[in-house]
């Protein structure tokens, strides 16, 4: 087991800097997910931790030892990739045994570890099979088995579920999480899929353009995004936004956000940093909006109705922005109808439009 510390880590390819000074402390046994859009530097960061990519600057500590210039095999790390990279001509058993054999371990020493890993990963009945006779999920489990028998102090997963179909992805998500709960090893897991991040992580690191936007527990980030990027990245369908200017309401009735079309959304509770005249962006999640409100805050003309079974998504426009409202009731609303909406004050997020930062 190992704690991992990154201090001021950066990466340059020639003149181009792609990772800009990352500071991150990962506790021993923690499951940390790096998430962000494609190209934000997640894989580069992970590959620097693995030793597959040179670190241009900063310090990497693994288990209390400076690891910047250690060779990959000296870092006691196991990595699972998107492509399972199994040897097609070797059986499941031999694929898992490949690493220990290369390291010249005796069969008596690694056999029990392979059997335990196979049992844990439900591969017990498949040890004699070749990879081509396995399903995608089973192949991914073999790749994990290979990682597990190393008994590494740190597991690195790089988009391991991207090649699987949707149903299997959900199943493997649960399996990887269960595996972590059993082994309690330190995990760094890279994905662009925010649902994977939300469901699997102890802590999520949201990255954008080579920088960390926010670090926190999944629901902390969901409930209190620090900026517009995190607010829009986490959640599906994503948070609704309305841009406007903070104005005084008539007769001293507090403040409102005046939108481009002239309509106003009342701001019942206003953060101390929200000033009259400032450009602000209001955010509210689709599931927090109440429809058919007695005392509405806004109205939306419905353009599309999307029933998913458990819930229904209503899509339309508010102040020129596209919005989605999720209801758990079977909705009788038809496209073209106007619905009145209540935006509960406790679920309203306000951001400074220019900096993108949350107003607190
Ligand atoms: P992610 O994993 O988040 O999709 P990557 O870490 O793969 O992102 O890439 C981050 C950035 O670094 C991208 O802009 C990518 O084009 C760039 N990059 C990655 N590898 C190289 C390389 N070998 N040479 C130059 N640029 C690279």
UniProtKB/TrEMBL annotation:
- GO BP: any one term: carbohydrate transport
GO molecular-function annotation terms? ABC-type transporter activity; ATP binding; ATP hydrolysis activity
Q: What InterPro entries does the record tag this protein with?
A: AAA+_ATPase, ABC_transporter-like_ATP-bd, ABC_transporter-like_CS, ABC_transpr_MalK-like, ABC_transpr_MalK/UgpC-like, Mo/tungstate-bd_C_term_dom, NA-bd_OB-fold, P-loop_NTPase
Source domain of life is Bacteria
Q: Which GO terms describe its cellular component?
A: ATP-binding cassette (ABC) transporter complex, substrate-binding subunit-containing
SMART domains (UniProt xref): AAA
Q: What PROSITE patterns does the entry give? A: ABC_TRANSPORTER_1, ABC_TRANSPORTER_2
**A Pfam family of this chain:** TOBE_2
Bilayer-crossing regions: none
Q: Which residues form the ABC transporter domain?
A: 4-234
Q: Which UniProt keywords apply?
A: ATP-binding, Cell inner membrane, Cell membrane, Membrane, Nucleotide-binding, Transport
**Descriptive protein name:** sn-glycerol-3-phosphate import ATP-binding protein UgpC
Q: Which organism is it from?
A: Paraburkholderia ultramafica
């Amino acid at each position: 087991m190992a704690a991992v510390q990154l201090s001021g880590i950066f990466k340059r390819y020639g003149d181009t800097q792609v990772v800009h000074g990352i500071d991150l402390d990962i506790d021993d046994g923690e499951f940390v997910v790096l998430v962000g859009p494609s190209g934000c530097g997640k894989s580069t960061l992970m590959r620097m931790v693995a030793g597959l990519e040179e670190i241009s600057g900063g310090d990497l500590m693994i288990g209390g030892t400076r690891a910047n210039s250690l060779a990959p095999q000296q870092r006691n790390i196991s990595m699972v990739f998107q492509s399972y990279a199994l040897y097609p001509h070797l059986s499941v058993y031999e694929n898992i045994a490949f690493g220990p054999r290369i390291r010249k371990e005796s069969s008596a020493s690694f056999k029990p570890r392979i059997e335990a890993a196979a049992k844990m990963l439900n591969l017990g009945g498949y040890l004699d099979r070749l990879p081509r006779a396995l399903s995608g999920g089973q192949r991914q489990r073999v790749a994990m088995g290979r990682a597990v028998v190393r008994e590494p102090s740190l597991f690195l997963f790089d988009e391991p579920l991207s090649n699987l179909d949707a149903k299997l992805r959900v199943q493997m998500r649960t399996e990887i999480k269960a595996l972590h709960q059993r082994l309690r090893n330190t995990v760094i897991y890279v994905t662009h899929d925010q649902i994977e991040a939300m469901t699997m992580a102890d802590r999520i690191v949201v990255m954008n353009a080579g920088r960390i936007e926010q670090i926190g527990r999944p629901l902390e980030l969901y409930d209190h995004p620090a900026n517009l990027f995190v607010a829009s990245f986490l959640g599906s369908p994503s948070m609704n936004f309305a841009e406007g200017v903070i104005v005084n309401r008539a007769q001293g009735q507090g403040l409102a956000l005046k939108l481009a079309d002239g309509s106003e959304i009342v701001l019942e509770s206003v953060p101390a940093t929200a000033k009259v005249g400032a450009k602000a962006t209001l955010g509210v999640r689709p599931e927090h909006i109440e429809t058919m409100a007695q005392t509405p805050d806004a109205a939306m003309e419905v353009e599309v109705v999307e029933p998913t079974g458990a819930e229904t998504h209503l899509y339309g426009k508010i102040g020129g922005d596209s919005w989605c409202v999720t209801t758990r009731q079977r909705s009788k609303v038809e496209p073209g109808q106007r619905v009145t909406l209540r935006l509960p004050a406790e679920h309203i997020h306000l951001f400074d439009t220019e900096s993108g930062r949350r107003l607190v």
